[in-house]
Design a protein that fits this description.
The chain is α+β, with helices and mostly antiparallel strands. Helix content is 31%, strand content 20%. The protein has helices at 17-26, 32-44, 48-51, 96-101, and strands spanning 7-13, 66-72, 76-82. The termini are far apart.
């Protein structure tokens, strides 16, 4: 039987009030691309749970989510958390680049 593993994707869009609030609280510049760079660096430095505690999934006791990957786009930062590195299933991903490629299918 396969163990239940948790994988979470977070998509931080640069022109949202959440993102702008984080920039104001950290004193970072209001330029969205520089703000994304600063937010990405903070994530890799272990501050993701402090910056966005309301959106981080709390796994079952004895399990812990690790930051495995960040992908930066033109106006977004995608953060991938997981217990172990897992391949991303495109049909369940919130990656805008994957979603955009399926728009013509409808």
């Amino acid at each position: 039987m396969k163990p239940d593993l948790t994988q979470q994707e977070i998509l931080l869009v640069a022109n949202t009030t959440f993102f702008k609030r984080q920039l104001c609280e950290t004193g970072t510049t209001t330029d969205s691309q520089l703000g994304l760079d600063a937010f990405e660096e903070a994530c890799w430095n272990g501050m993701l749970d402090e910056l966005a505690p309301e959106i981080i999934h709390k796994p079952a006791p004895g399990h812990k989510l690790f930051l495995w990957e960040t992908r930066k786009g033109q106006a977004f930062l995608q953060i991938v958390l997981s217990e172990i590195p897992l391949p991303m299933e495109k049909e369940f991903s919130i990656d805008p680049n994957v979603f955009e490629s399926t728009l013509g299918c409808n």
